[in-house]
Amino acid sequence: MLNLPNADRSISTYEIRNRPVAIAKRDASSFNRIAYAAAHVVADPLAENDPWLQPAIDWDKTLAYRHYLWDLGFGVAEAMDTAQRGMGLGWPEARELIARTLKEAQSRPGVRIACGAGTDHLAPGPDVTLDRIIAAYEEQIETIEAHGGRIILMASRALAAAAKSPDDYQRVYDRVLSQIKEPVIIHWLGEMFDPALDGYWGAADHLAAMETALDVIATHAEKVDGIKISLLSKEKEILMRRRLPAGVRMYTGDDFNYAELIAGDDQGYSDALLGIFDAIAPAASAALEALGAGQHNTFFDLLEPTVPLSRHIFKAPTRFYKTGVVFLAYLNGLQDHFTMVGGQESTRSTLHLAEVFRLADAGRVLIDPDLAVSRMRQVMAVRGVPQPR
After folding, report:
1. Does domain 2-382 have CATH number 3.30.365.10?
2. Nearest Cα to 153, choosing from 136, 166, 165, 168?
3. Helix 130-146 and helix 166-177, axial crossing angle in degrees, nearest 10
């Protein structure tokens, strides 16, 4: 039992109401969808550093979290926005994270890993040319491929700032994709996740932008494994999915509508590359196994209750969703503190975290309810919500 605040400033007693989905080791072969979890990084809370300026990472806990996801059958999408890329995690830290994860995976043959390659070590500015952006992409790609990693081609803030037309995007992606060793996943990250990416692909209108992205993919279909779009619009994702060249996958990045997009329709389905899978991994793993076994009702019974939680975690300002993801890892005992790289634990309110707790219970993703209650009581007490004795 604990006390949680309400929007009207009252405080209510809350008790856990739902039994969590059990954790069970699974192999990806039991899934009929490819499923990547974009994984977060665990900060080192005892480091002597300036949190807003100097990232400090607990490497042991961070890598242990990857094993947790692999044990549940997920691939890991490494050094993506869920890992606070561009919001506390710079390229030097991302480079080390990628190298450590790929080395760690050598003990886990067959697990999927795809790593984010972008241009985040190149600050946008008036002197940034397309050639410099291409060179920045090439540097990160070369580093990842040297470690044997596969590429997720991340959207570039520098390109969004420098491009004058869709042709500029065509030029950059043509050059980069022509050099890739293995097929990549292109990531179209919407402006709701990163305002600096507004107008990506050369148009503020997503449907117009989609035409450029589709042209790039069609031109280099043999170099593209798939595209992950994070626009929080199932209609746009389905529209694009139906127009992709044969053999090119749609990886849903829609943290609002993932259940129905993964299930699909009579014209196709989406695979998954989702930050929310980090937070709801046991339920998502069980649901994907059920889908693989043809148990569609069980799939929805397991996954749909997590959707309200995900919509809350990813609510505007969406870029602060990482706080909810890490908060759940703390409540679930997967790390022993709620400290984040860049001090990002401060980006969500006490009311927001209280609702995360309620919805996590409804979604059956509080792995150890007693531990979750104990930790939630401590967090609420520190934030000014008195707790029952």
Report:
1. no
2. 136
3. 30
